[in-house]
């Protein structure tokens, strides 16, 4: 049976364009909602025949296409329906390597932070994002190359050797810091010195976050700053607005709070809080909390002691390793003790006391003096009785476990402490459980780092200049912003309508991921003759369900809309 489009082709005698668009019309629609092209064109003045905003949109689409970004960009778009994606008929040469490189240079000159800030403001306004919880974290990004002048203070991304969170100390790196709001949506992204400490970065960010959110219309007392344990310094705690962080185990206050919670034995059962359903391979962690009070640097804070069943299993295994090491150490001490021979009991008693004073982490010795008679040469008497000619003394050591210490350590296993100055009462009060749930939202920023480091998104960075790396970082951040916005819109719509979409294995889910979206629309093709378009195959019921969750009509796959 002939395809219905064949008659149109025959009548018009025009070349037929078959483009596999997959999910890219959806990405283009979200970019239009953000006015990516308009904002970039306004902030990046160029003397080029191409629009920088169109090139940026092209690089974002390419980044989210699933192939290696910025690799043969012109060739990739030569096979695409450029009118559908960009709203105007652009030649493939528009996306040449020279044009892309020059636009990256102009992005850096215009200021990547200012461009992304304008886009994040548009995202918060258009999508009504909540900034009640602001999450911050950093990660290291490896680069391949020498970059001999990249450590100068005037350089863009300060590329140097530093502590590698990817366990690659052999590579130079820069540090990327992210500030995110609900759903892990980034609103600030910065390139930091590759050797910068998280504590110093937190100190700088705390000074900027209030100003930045004020530009978004968010008052200082209207948000809670959530960060990891690197935030806990005297200067940062004094400077921070309302915050939730993790108290480092290196602080004595951490252990004191855990022991106080164990002694009080008053826990609030929270249960499982993971948004995703558990599996056999990954069972849900079960939580319980107990609130204590601590003082740091002369100021009082709330300490939420959290016990996690997942942490408990890991730390119990660690404790078993510590017990084995303790037993090995005390066994060596026992052998050394029992190898001694002394000439008088008094010396033996002293040696026994000294031996009992020694101990390992979880074991001690119970040492007693034993007589070791010495006999003369020759055979014993016929009755078998031997008379010693002298008496020596040795030690007998028994290894004892420190049961109270082990029991306490087992109770402490699985516990960590959250630190906060958010009040527990009042209209904006947070009880211990809500403190925990808010902190656990920090996982979203870790997902963002996984996105930015995913080999399917960006391969190992190897660009000629740090300026190009910073500009590419802006492209990746814009792509991440759109990626998370698509996810947030789907989940918000499904929550409001109390509905679901078919997820993996067609199991209904109310929390579809952006990756699930891209997988659902793989293989979507559009046939185009002139200005007439038709889907190669009708969208499936699952694809239509996703479009409803995205609040996008099916026509976005057929009718071009201007990107500006």
Structure notes:
The two termini are 41 Å apart. The chain has helices spanning 5-12, 24-34, 36-43, 52-63, 73-78, 82-86, 97-110, 112-126, 198-215, 234-239, 252-264, 309-338, 345-357, 403-412, 432-440, 443-453, 466-497, 514-520, 541-550, and strands at 17-20, 133-143, 172-181, 185-192, 224-226, 243-246, 268-271, 287-296, 299-308, 341-342, 363-375, 388-401, 415-420, 501-502, 508-509, 525-529, 532-535. The model is unreliable at 1-12 (pLDDT under 50). Among the domains are: 17-112 and 462-557, no CATH class; 325-408, no CATH class. The protein is α+β, with helices and mostly antiparallel strands. The chain has a nine-stranded mixed β-sheet, with helices on both faces. Strands 1-16-17 form a three-stranded antiparallel β-sheet, with helices on one face.
Topology overview:
Blueprint: H1 5-12, E1 17-20, H2 24-34, H3 36-43, H4 52-63, H5 73-78, H6 82-86, H7 97-110, H8 112-126, E2 133-143, E3 172-181, E4 185-192, H9 198-215, E5 224-226, H10 234-239, E6 243-246, H11 252-264, E7 268-271, E8 287-296, E9 299-308, H12 309-338, E10 341-342, H13 345-357, E11 363-375, E12 388-401, H14 403-412, E13 415-420, H15 432-440, H16 443-453, H17 466-497, E14 501-502, E15 508-509, H18 514-520, E16 525-529, E17 532-535, H19 541-550
Parallel strand pairs: 2-5, 5-6
Antiparallel strand pairs: 1-16, 2-3, 3-4, 6-13, 7-8, 8-9, 9-13, 10-12, 11-12, 14-15, 16-17
């Amino acid at each position: 049976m002939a395809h219905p489009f064949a008659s149109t082709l025959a009548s018009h005698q025009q070349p037929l364009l078959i483009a596999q668009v997959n999910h890219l019309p959806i990405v283009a629609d979200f970019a239009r909602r953000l006015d990516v092209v308009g904002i970039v064109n306004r902030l990046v003045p160029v003397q080029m025949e191409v629009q920088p905003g169109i090139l940026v949109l092209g690089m974002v689409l390419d980044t989210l296409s699933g192939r290696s970004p910025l690799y043969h960009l012109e060739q990739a778009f030569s096979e695409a329906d450029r009118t559908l994606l960009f709203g105007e008929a652009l030649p493939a040469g528009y996306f040449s390597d020279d044009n892309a490189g020059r636009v990256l240079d102009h992005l850096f000159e215009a200021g990547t932070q200012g461009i992304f800030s304008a886009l994040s403001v548009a995202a918060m306004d258009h999508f009504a994002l909540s900034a009640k919880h602001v999450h911050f974290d950093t990660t290291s990004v490896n680069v391949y190359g020498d970059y001999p002048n990249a450590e100068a203070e005037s350089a863009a991304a300060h590329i140097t050797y530093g502590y590698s969170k990817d366990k690659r100390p052999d590579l130079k790196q820069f540090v990327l810091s992210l500030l995110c709001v609900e759903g892990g949506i980034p609103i600030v992204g910065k390139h930091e010195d590759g050797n910068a400490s998280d504590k110093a970065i937190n100190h700088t960010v705390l000074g900027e976050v209030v100003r930045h959110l004020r530009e978004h219309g968010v008052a200082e007392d209207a948000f809670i700053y959530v960060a990891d344990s690197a935030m806990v310094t005297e200067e940062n705690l004094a400077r921070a607005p309302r915050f939730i962080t993790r108290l480092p185990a290196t602080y004595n206050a951490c252990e004191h709070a855990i022991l106080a919670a164990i002694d009080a034995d008053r826990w609030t059962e929270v249960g499982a809080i993971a948004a995703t359903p558990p599996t056999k391979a990954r069972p849900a962690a079960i939580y319980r909390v107990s609130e204590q009070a601590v003082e740091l640097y002369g100021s009082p804070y709330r300490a939420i002691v959290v016990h996690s069943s997942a942490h408990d299993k890991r730390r119990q295994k660690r404790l078993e390793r510590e017990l084995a090491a303790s037993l090995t150490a005390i066994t060596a001490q026992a052998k050394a003790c029992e190898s001694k021979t002394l000439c008088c009991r008094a010396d033996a008693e002293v040696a026994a006391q000294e031996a009992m004073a020694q101990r390992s982490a979880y074991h001690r010795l119970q040492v007693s003096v034993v007589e070791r008679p010495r006999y003369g040469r020759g055979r014993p008497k016929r009755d078998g009785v031997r008379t010693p000619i002298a008496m020596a003394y040795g030690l007998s050591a028994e290894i004892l476990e420190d049961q109270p210490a082990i029991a306490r350590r087992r109770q402490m296993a699985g516990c960590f402490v959250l630190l906060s100055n958010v009040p527990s009462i009042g209209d904006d009060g947070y009880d211990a459980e809500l403190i925990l749930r808010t902190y656990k939202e920090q996982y979203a920023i870790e997902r963002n780092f996984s996105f930015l480091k995913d080999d399917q998104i960006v391969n190992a960075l190897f660009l000629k200049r740090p300026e190009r790396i910073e500009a590419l970082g802006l492209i990746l951040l814009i792509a991440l912003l759109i990626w998370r916005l698509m996810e947030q819109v789907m989940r918000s719509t499904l929550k409001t309508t109390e509905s679901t979409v078919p997820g993996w294995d067609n199991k209904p889910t109310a929390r579809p991921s952006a990756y699930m979206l891209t997988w659902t629309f793989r293989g979507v093709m559009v046939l185009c003759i002139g200005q007439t378009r038709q889907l190669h195959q009708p969208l499936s019921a699952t694809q239509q369900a996703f479009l409803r969750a995205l609040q996008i009509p099916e026509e976005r796959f057929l009718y071009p809309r201007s990107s500006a």
